[in-house]
Design a protein that fits this description.
- By secondary structure, this protein is of the alpha/beta class.
- The chain has 2 domains: 226 residues, Rossmann fold; 105 residues, Rossmann fold, CATH 3.40.50.1100.
- It is built from 13 helices and 10 strands.
- It is globular and about 60 Å long.
């Protein structure tokens, strides 16, 4: 396909600049030697806004659309330590929009990590005991809050991201753009990645990378995109990824990727936000060998998945691998006690 129409469609989307782009693509020389692969890190932890992460790219398009619709406030919901909520609060502060956060929890959670930043960034915070972000109750609470805002003369913009929504398509489109950016950096570095590893929470990041890699990011056409599930398992999130990809492809006039997402369920552990021994070991390995800071919720589990795949030969020795560091670094402070205790085997580079 021709790249030009998709790139033109991306350029036409309203966008509010928040991120320091392009983020670096860095070779991890020490880990490459230790693991026997050519490992590169795409540093989307360095997007800049309020400690960065992959959510900043998405908020550029979401805030751009909100402003285009005359919004005066942003409303969203997620966990108490949500990266997305932290960056939404930061984006609102930068754009002059009020931010309302409906957080899953009791309100008695320690004010640290992302939750501390939510407060510092001036967000209006409420808590809900409904742990399902997609429940009818959660949607009603957001709509009720939006109605309160309208009654006070505000124009709320609800960031309720799911596969079939316009905001979901915009969030996914941000990672179509990221795939194009990564493709150009790989070409400049003289590499053609065999594998790309990324954390999968909601699924929109992987969906955007898939649309980009099977469309305008032509140099990634043969790259195996591997998503490590950290929240819902593949039987649930796989369908969500498909929905995100379809709505983003329709928005941009891009082809829908033909293949099903390649997903790894083996690193999630007991549940979302619960550190696993493998993730803690992977975090220590990345830090000690490469000064690469990962977190127990997203990137630590994803790096553990990569180490496991190398150990069992799914990633062959000598392969070129890109690890998408999606950030979320404030999360490490919410898990300080676990991280401060040296896990067994932390000096190993892979597990069997």
């Amino acid at each position: 396909m021709s790249r030009a129409p998709v790139l033109a469609a991306l350029d036409r989307l309203p966008r509010f600049v928040l991120a320091a782009l392009p983020t670096p693509l860095e070779r991890a020389a020490n880990l490459s030697r230790a693991l026997g692969v050519d490992l590169w890190i795409k540093r989307d932890d360095l997007t800049g806004l309020a400690l960065g992460g992959n959510k900043v790219r998405k908020l550029e398009y979401l805030v751009g659309d909100a402003l285009a619709h005359g919004a005066t406030s942003l409303l969203t919901t997620a966990a108490a330590q949500s990266n997305f909520c932290r960056v939404t609060a930061a984006a609102g502060a930068r754009a002059g929009l009020r931010v309302h956060l409906l957080l899953r929890g009791t309100g008695a959670e320690p004010v640290q990590g992302n939750l501390l930043l939510d407060h510092l960034l001036g967000a209006d915070i409420r808590f809900t005991d409904d742990m399902d972000p997609y429940s009818e109750g959660t949607k009603r609470r957001l709509e009720t809050w939006a109605d309160e805002d309208r009654a006070g003369g505000g124009v709320p913009y609800i960031l309720y991201i799911h596969g079939g929504s316009h905001v979901g398509a915009l969030a996914t489109a941000a990672y179509v753009q990221a795939a194009v950016e990564l493709d150009g950096q790989c070409r400049a570095a003289g590499i053609r990645p065999d594998h790309l590893y990324v954390a999968v929470g909601s699924g929109s990041t992987l969906a955007g990378l898939l649309v980009g890699a099977r469309g305008p990011a032509e140099g990634l056409a043969r790259t195996r995109l591997r998503g490590v599930c950290v929240s819902a398992l593949s039987n649930v999130v796989g369908e969500k990824i498909r929905e995100f990809a379809e709505t983003a492809a329709a928005l941009l006039g891009a082809p829908v990727p033909a293949e099903a997402p390649d997903l790894d369920d083996g690193e999630r552990g007991p549940g979302y936000g619960v550190p696993t021994p493998a993730a803690l070991e992977a975090i220590h390995t990345a830090a000690a060998r490469e000064a690469l800071v990962l977190n127990p919720v997203y990137t630590g589990k994803t790096f553990a998945g990569l180490l496991h795949d190398i150990a069992r030969g799914v990633v062959a020795r000598g392969s070129t691998v890109v690890f998408m560091n999606t950030g979320g670094d404030p999360l490490i402070f919410a898990h300080a006690e676990r991280l401060a205790a040296e896990p067994a085997g932390a000096t190993q580079t892979a597990r069997g």
